[in-house]
């Protein structure tokens, strides 16, 4: 398989979805633990690899994210719907994560191999997608959630800046790891036919 080709087999798509689901499960379950939550990067990477499968893959990952949140909250003896983070704004995670998916899908359309141009597009698209995700998720929580007692534009700007860089840094870190693994896979796939050709000529 040529990884520059957006066409993936159903088995490959299912395998990628499973890996991404496991990564999200391992990191989202302890949001502020030693291993940062990879959910944002998971949706971006899923948009890249599973472009064309959004009708089933995106809802599957979205459902997993909600189920993980439900498990974490209820395991603490707290009613899910009364938790600080759960309000009508919680459902804005759908368009927030959708922005990440779209960013990965946009990059896939323009991908022709790991070259300087693609690396630039990767960093730019991941940063923009994560920024839109943060703006929507943070903004909806600030302006809609009852957990915020007093609201003002200045207060939102301050709130907006509190966690922006940590979220962006974490997302880019995980996307960087995925990029390294992608590059290694590309090299391995190029190496395998070469070795097979050498073996056939012996």
Fold blueprint:
Layout: H1 10-28, H2 39-49, H3 54-74, H4 93-109, H5 116-144, H6 153-201
Tell me what you see in this structure.
The protein is mostly helical. It has one domain. The protein has helices spanning 10-28, 39-49, 54-74, 93-109, 116-144, 153-201. The longest helix is centred in the C-terminal third of the chain and has 49 residues, at 153-201. The radius of gyration is 19 Å and the shape is globular. This is Cobalamin ABC transporter.
Tell me briefly what this model is.
Helices cover about 70% and strands about 0% of the residues.
Supply the key terms.
202 residues, mainly alpha, 72% helix, globular, disordered N terminus, Cobalamin ABC transporter, transmembrane helix, membrane, transmembrane
Structural class: mainly alpha
How many domains, in number, for the residues? Answer: 1
Task: Compute the CA-based radius of gyration.
Answer: 19 Å
Uncertain segments of ≥5 residues (pLDDT<50)? 1-6, 196-200
Element pattern in H and E: HHHHHH
- Cα distance, first to last residue? 24 Å
Shape descriptor: globular
Topology, number of strands: 0
- Mean residue pLDDT: 88
Keywords: Membrane, Transmembrane, Transmembrane helix
Transmembrane segments: 7-26, 57-78, 90-107, 119-144, 164-184
Organism: Dokdonella soli
Protein name: Cobalamin ABC transporter
């Amino acid at each position: 398989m040529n990884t520059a080709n957006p066409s993936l087999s159903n088995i490959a798509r299912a395998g990628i979805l499973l890996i991404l689901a496991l990564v999200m499960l391992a990191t989202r379950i302890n949001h502020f633990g030693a291993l940062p939550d990879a959910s944002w990067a998971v949706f971006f990477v899923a948009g890249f690899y599973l472009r064309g499968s959004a009708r089933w893959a995106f809802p599957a990952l979205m459902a997993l994210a909600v189920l993980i949140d439900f498990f974490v909250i209820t395991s603490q003896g707290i009613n899910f719907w009364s938790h600080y983070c759960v309000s009508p704004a919680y459902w804005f995670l759908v368009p927030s994560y959708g922005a990440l998916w779209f960013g990965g899908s946009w990059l896939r359309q323009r991908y022709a191999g790991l070259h300087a141009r693609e690396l630039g597009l990767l960093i730019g698209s991941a940063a923009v997608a994560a920024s839109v995700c943060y703006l929507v998720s943070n903004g909806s929580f600030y302006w809609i959630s009852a957990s915020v007692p007093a609201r003002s534009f200045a207060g939102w700007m301050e709130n907006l800046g509190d966690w922006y860089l940590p979220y962006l840094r974490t997302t880019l870190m995980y996307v960087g790891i995925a990029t390294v693994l992608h590059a290694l896979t590309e090299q391995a796939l190029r190496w395998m036919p070469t070795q097979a050709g050498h073996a056939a000529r012996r």
